[in-house]
Amino acid sequence: LCRTPGGKPLQTPPLIGAISKDPVLSKVKLISEPWDCGGLYQVGSFPNWDVWAEWNGKYRDDVRRFIKGDPGMKTAFATRLAGSADLYNYNNRKPFHSVNFVIAHDGFTMNDLVSYNSKHNEDNGEESRDGSNDNFSWNCGAEGDTSSDQINQLRVRQRKNFHMALMVSQGTPMVLMGDEYGRSTLGNNNTYGLDRRMNYFRWDQLEGEEASRNFLRFYAGLIHYRRSSPLLGRSEFLRSRDITWHESNWGNEESCFLSFTLHGGHLGARSIYVAFNAHGYWVENALPKPASGKRWHRVVDTNLASPKDFDAEGVRAIEGSVYRVAPYSCLLLEEK
């Protein structure tokens, strides 16, 4: 749609422009997948007329890389959490024009993203040549199914971390059917042509497995929390009074720890503190001082087992000024 008949990219493609100016079509939700099979990649530069949103492929890649512990990703991760202003803060663009996602209809499921280092597409009949090779996945210590409790617990934690990142990001979140309970396609990242149970919504797994039900509780609860908080999913880009980054050394490429406070006082809302630890060790994390007469209360700690991993009411008040953040985990506190 964005090329000439000869394949040359167009700055103002006529069909996209016509849709953007149509009195009916311009008023519906318009979302582009801003790349094509010929290598044209237009994330942040898709011809949009200020009405098209975009699948933010840079969000997917940067979040995947930070959560699995790749060095040098902290600044990019922070930028994605804050709404990708580097891509969308121009003209009349808004944070919601960034469709944030970690998982889409093609590629790994969330479960497989933390269970496989490589694609396993042999069933597709193309000798595994199909499907993306650039998945930024990490199997957490074993390829595919494993009986290791330690690895399986880490995988659940990582799935929670990805969902948490998506829910606290400014922008429009997109999720994939089945990730809410842990659907797997057994490492196949290109299953569109397979009419099999792996591509169905597995009610038997959701209803029959306690681990699936526990994850659904966390997953759905965090979605509801996002929708109820005026600090998340905002319509304008963040300003200095809206957020404090608790970081003094952005240039440290070995650092995989990031924390920030979303301030709610000027909006009549409770402030939120968020911390991500993508290191393989515990971090003794100094908390910012809460406002006078208030305390931090824990809403999320992905290191804790269900139901302690998510408490929408934030019943547990934090004692002291330091919180130990577990390896590969994240934290959300509310000030009240």
Contiguous helical run count: 8
Question: What is the β-strand count?
Answer: 11
Anisotropy-based shape: globular
Strand order of the largest sheet: 5-6-7-11-9
Helix percent band: 10-25%
Structural class: alpha/beta
Write the element-wise H/E pattern from the N-terminal end onward. HEEHHHEHHEHHEEEEEEE
Compute the separation of the termini in Å. 51 Å
| Average pLDDT, all residues | 96
Given as residue ranges, the uncertain stretches (5+ residues, pLDDT < 50) are none
Largest sheet: 5 strands, antiparallel
Strand proportion: 5-15%
Topology:
Elements: H1 14-21, E1 30-32, E2 52-55, H2 57-67, H3 74-81, H4 85-88, E3 98-101, H5 110-113, H6 149-168, E4 172-174, H7 203-208, H8 210-228, E5 243-245, E6 257-262, E7 272-277, E8 283-286, E9 296-301, E10 322-325, E11 329-335
Parallel strand pairs: 1-2, 2-3, 3-4
Antiparallel strand pairs: 5-6, 6-7, 7-11, 8-10, 9-11
What is shown here, in short?
The protein has 336 residues and is an alpha/beta fold. It has helices at 14-21, 57-67, 74-81, 85-88, 110-113, 149-168, 203-208, 210-228, and strands at residues 30-32, 52-55, 98-101, 172-174, 243-245, 257-262, 272-277, 283-286, 296-301, 322-325, 329-335. It has a five-stranded antiparallel beta sheet, with helices on one face. The chain has a four-stranded parallel beta sheet with strand order 1-2-3-4. A two-stranded antiparallel ribbon has the order 8-10.
